[in-house]
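Supplementary Methods S3. Input chains for the assembly prediction are listed below.
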Amino acid sequence: QKEVEQNSGPLSVPEGAIASLNCTYSDRVSQSFFWYRQYSGKSPELIMSIYSNGDKEDGRFTAQLNKASQYVSLLIRDSQPSDSATYLCAVNSGGTSYGKLTFGQGTILTVHP
Amino acid sequence: SAVISQKPSRDICQRGTSLTIQCQVDSQVTMMFWYRQQPGQSLTLIATANQGSEATYESGFVIDKFPISRPNLTFSTLTVSNMSPEDSSIYLCSVGREAFFGQGTRLTVV
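Predicted C-alpha coordinates for the full assembly:
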Protein backbone atom coordinates (compact mmCIF):
# COMPACT_ATOMS: atom_id res chain seq x y z
CA GLN A 1 0.00 0.00 0.00
CA LYS A 2 1.34 3.38 -0.98
CA GLU A 3 2.07 5.48 2.08
CA VAL A 4 2.98 9.04 2.84
CA GLU A 5 4.37 9.82 6.28
CA GLN A 6 4.89 13.26 7.77
CA ASN A 7 6.97 14.21 10.76
CA SER A 8 4.95 14.04 13.88
CA GLY A 9 3.64 17.26 15.30
CA PRO A 10 2.49 19.52 16.45
CA LEU A 11 5.32 21.87 15.56
CA SER A 12 5.67 25.17 17.34
CA VAL A 13 8.08 27.90 16.24
CA PRO A 14 8.52 31.54 17.21
CA GLU A 15 7.60 34.28 14.79
CA GLY A 16 10.43 34.96 12.37
CA ALA A 17 11.94 31.49 12.66
CA ILE A 18 12.24 28.79 10.03
CA ALA A 19 9.65 26.01 10.15
CA SER A 20 10.76 22.69 8.70
CA LEU A 21 8.20 20.11 7.64
CA ASN A 22 9.22 16.67 6.42
CA CYS A 23 7.57 13.91 4.45
CA THR A 24 8.60 10.47 3.21
CA TYR A 25 6.79 8.31 0.69
CA SER A 26 6.88 4.63 -0.16
CA ASP A 27 6.07 4.51 -3.89
CA ARG A 28 9.31 4.88 -5.83
CA VAL A 29 7.54 5.66 -9.10
CA SER A 30 5.83 8.78 -7.75
CA GLN A 31 6.62 11.80 -9.88
CA SER A 32 4.61 14.65 -8.41
CA PHE A 33 4.73 16.05 -4.91
CA PHE A 34 2.65 18.73 -3.26
CA TRP A 35 2.31 20.71 -0.08
CA TYR A 36 -1.07 21.99 1.01
CA ARG A 37 -2.01 24.32 3.81
CA GLN A 38 -5.32 23.79 5.57
CA TYR A 39 -6.76 26.25 8.00
CA SER A 40 -9.26 24.96 10.51
CA GLY A 41 -12.67 24.55 8.89
CA LYS A 42 -11.34 25.25 5.40
CA SER A 43 -10.41 23.10 2.44
CA PRO A 44 -6.76 22.43 1.57
CA GLU A 45 -4.95 25.12 -0.40
CA LEU A 46 -2.00 24.28 -2.65
CA ILE A 47 1.13 26.18 -1.68
CA MET A 48 3.91 24.28 -3.44
CA SER A 49 4.36 21.62 -6.08
CA ILE A 50 7.66 19.99 -7.01
CA TYR A 51 8.49 17.45 -9.68
CA SER A 52 12.29 17.34 -9.94
CA ASN A 53 15.06 16.66 -7.47
CA GLY A 54 16.40 19.72 -5.75
CA ASP A 55 14.93 22.89 -4.36
CA LYS A 56 12.04 25.01 -5.51
CA GLU A 57 11.51 28.41 -3.96
CA ASP A 58 8.39 30.55 -3.95
CA GLY A 59 8.51 33.57 -1.68
CA ARG A 60 9.02 32.41 1.89
CA PHE A 61 8.44 28.77 0.95
CA THR A 62 11.05 26.28 -0.28
CA ALA A 63 10.22 22.73 -1.24
CA GLN A 64 13.02 20.17 -1.39
CA LEU A 65 12.78 16.83 -3.15
CA ASN A 66 15.14 13.85 -2.99
CA LYS A 67 13.72 10.97 -4.97
CA ALA A 68 16.58 8.63 -4.10
CA SER A 69 15.75 9.00 -0.44
CA GLN A 70 12.01 9.26 -1.14
CA TYR A 71 11.90 12.43 0.86
CA VAL A 72 10.24 15.79 0.38
CA SER A 73 10.32 18.75 2.71
CA LEU A 74 8.91 22.23 3.08
CA LEU A 75 10.74 25.13 4.68
CA ILE A 76 8.89 28.25 5.71
CA ARG A 77 11.20 31.19 6.32
CA ASP A 78 10.32 34.17 8.47
CA SER A 79 7.33 32.29 9.88
CA GLN A 80 4.28 34.41 10.66
CA PRO A 81 1.34 33.71 12.98
CA SER A 82 -0.81 33.55 9.83
CA ASP A 83 1.21 30.47 8.81
CA SER A 84 -0.36 28.58 11.71
CA ALA A 85 -2.29 25.76 10.05
CA THR A 86 -2.12 22.08 9.21
CA TYR A 87 0.31 21.27 6.41
CA LEU A 88 -0.41 18.28 4.24
CA CYS A 89 2.11 16.48 2.08
CA ALA A 90 0.63 14.74 -0.95
CA VAL A 91 2.07 12.45 -3.58
CA ASN A 92 0.62 11.59 -6.95
CA SER A 93 -0.37 7.97 -6.73
CA GLY A 94 -2.15 7.49 -10.01
CA GLY A 95 0.59 7.37 -12.59
CA THR A 96 -0.94 9.22 -15.52
CA SER A 97 -4.11 9.87 -13.49
CA TYR A 98 -3.03 13.31 -12.50
CA GLY A 99 -4.83 14.60 -9.48
CA LYS A 100 -5.10 11.22 -7.78
CA LEU A 101 -3.20 11.94 -4.59
CA THR A 102 -2.19 10.11 -1.45
CA PHE A 103 -1.98 12.43 1.54
CA GLY A 104 0.11 12.29 4.67
CA GLN A 105 -1.54 12.65 8.03
CA GLY A 106 -0.64 16.32 8.27
CA THR A 107 1.55 18.39 10.59
CA ILE A 108 0.00 21.07 12.75
CA LEU A 109 2.18 24.18 12.79
CA THR A 110 1.78 26.92 15.35
CA VAL A 111 3.74 30.15 14.99
CA HIS A 112 3.69 32.09 18.24
CA PRO A 113 4.39 35.82 18.46
CA SER B 1 -6.49 27.25 -11.47
CA ALA B 2 -10.06 26.06 -11.80
CA VAL B 3 -12.92 27.48 -9.76
CA ILE B 4 -14.83 24.72 -8.05
CA SER B 5 -18.21 25.11 -6.40
CA GLN B 6 -19.65 22.53 -4.07
CA LYS B 7 -23.17 22.28 -2.73
CA PRO B 8 -24.27 22.05 -0.01
CA SER B 9 -21.51 23.57 2.09
CA ARG B 10 -22.81 21.76 5.15
CA ASP B 11 -25.73 19.60 6.20
CA ILE B 12 -27.03 17.71 9.18
CA CYS B 13 -28.77 14.48 8.20
CA GLN B 14 -30.66 11.71 9.91
CA ARG B 15 -29.12 8.26 9.92
CA GLY B 16 -30.48 5.99 7.23
CA THR B 17 -31.01 8.81 4.75
CA SER B 18 -28.92 9.81 1.72
CA LEU B 19 -27.30 13.07 0.70
CA THR B 20 -26.17 14.07 -2.76
CA ILE B 21 -23.26 16.49 -3.03
CA GLN B 22 -22.75 18.50 -6.19
CA CYS B 23 -19.47 19.69 -7.66
CA GLN B 24 -19.38 22.23 -10.48
CA VAL B 25 -16.19 23.34 -12.25
CA ASP B 26 -15.80 26.47 -14.37
CA SER B 27 -13.91 24.63 -17.11
CA GLN B 28 -14.03 21.24 -18.76
CA VAL B 29 -11.94 18.59 -17.05
CA THR B 30 -11.40 14.94 -17.86
CA MET B 31 -11.23 13.63 -14.33
CA MET B 32 -12.78 14.73 -11.08
CA PHE B 33 -11.83 13.29 -7.73
CA TRP B 34 -13.81 12.83 -4.56
CA TYR B 35 -12.07 12.79 -1.18
CA ARG B 36 -13.23 12.29 2.38
CA GLN B 37 -11.71 13.93 5.44
CA GLN B 38 -12.88 12.38 8.67
CA PRO B 39 -12.68 14.48 11.85
CA GLY B 40 -9.08 15.15 12.79
CA GLN B 41 -7.80 13.06 9.89
CA SER B 42 -6.16 13.64 6.56
CA LEU B 43 -7.75 13.25 3.15
CA THR B 44 -8.59 9.87 1.65
CA LEU B 45 -9.52 9.39 -1.97
CA ILE B 46 -12.95 7.86 -2.45
CA ALA B 47 -13.12 7.58 -6.22
CA THR B 48 -12.15 9.03 -9.58
CA ALA B 49 -15.00 10.19 -11.81
CA ASN B 50 -14.44 10.13 -15.56
CA GLN B 51 -17.03 11.49 -17.93
CA GLY B 52 -18.67 8.75 -19.92
CA SER B 53 -17.54 5.83 -17.81
CA GLU B 54 -18.10 4.28 -14.43
CA ALA B 55 -16.29 5.83 -11.52
CA THR B 56 -13.22 4.03 -10.20
CA TYR B 57 -13.39 3.39 -6.47
CA GLU B 58 -10.51 3.06 -4.05
CA SER B 59 -10.11 0.18 -1.66
CA GLY B 60 -12.66 0.41 1.11
CA PHE B 61 -15.21 2.38 -0.88
CA VAL B 62 -18.05 0.83 -2.86
CA ILE B 63 -20.50 2.10 -5.42
CA ASP B 64 -23.58 1.10 -3.43
CA LYS B 65 -22.49 3.36 -0.57
CA PHE B 66 -21.02 6.20 -2.63
CA PRO B 67 -22.66 6.31 -6.06
CA ILE B 68 -21.14 8.90 -8.35
CA SER B 69 -22.48 10.54 -11.46
CA ARG B 70 -20.50 12.41 -14.10
CA PRO B 71 -22.97 13.59 -16.72
CA ASN B 72 -20.62 16.07 -18.41
CA LEU B 73 -17.12 17.54 -18.27
CA THR B 74 -17.93 20.24 -15.72
CA PHE B 75 -20.16 18.51 -13.18
CA SER B 76 -20.22 15.53 -10.83
CA THR B 77 -22.25 14.34 -7.89
CA LEU B 78 -21.39 12.09 -4.97
CA THR B 79 -24.17 10.48 -2.97
CA VAL B 80 -23.60 9.23 0.54
CA SER B 81 -26.19 6.50 0.97
CA ASN B 82 -27.83 4.99 4.02
CA MET B 83 -25.83 7.27 6.27
CA SER B 84 -24.56 6.44 9.73
CA PRO B 85 -22.74 8.68 12.22
CA GLU B 86 -19.46 7.22 10.92
CA ASP B 87 -20.10 9.03 7.64
CA SER B 88 -19.76 12.38 9.39
CA SER B 89 -16.89 13.95 7.48
CA ILE B 90 -15.92 16.67 5.10
CA TYR B 91 -16.36 15.60 1.49
CA LEU B 92 -14.26 17.37 -1.11
CA CYS B 93 -14.08 17.30 -4.86
CA SER B 94 -10.94 18.22 -6.74
CA VAL B 95 -9.72 18.67 -10.27
CA GLY B 96 -6.44 19.19 -12.02
CA ARG B 97 -2.95 17.79 -11.80
CA GLU B 98 -2.33 19.76 -8.65
CA ALA B 99 -5.68 18.92 -7.05
CA PHE B 100 -7.51 22.18 -6.61
CA PHE B 101 -10.29 21.69 -4.11
CA GLY B 102 -13.78 22.99 -3.72
CA GLN B 103 -14.78 24.44 -0.39
CA GLY B 104 -16.02 21.06 0.77
CA THR B 105 -19.24 19.74 2.23
CA ARG B 106 -19.30 19.29 5.99
CA LEU B 107 -21.67 16.44 6.75
CA THR B 108 -22.95 15.56 10.19
CA VAL B 109 -25.08 12.46 10.62
CA VAL B 110 -27.21 12.26 13.74
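The interface with chain A takes residues 1, 31, 33, 41-45, 48, 90, 92, 94-104 of chain B (CB under 8 Å). Residues 66 and 80 of chain B are 5 Å apart (CA to CA).
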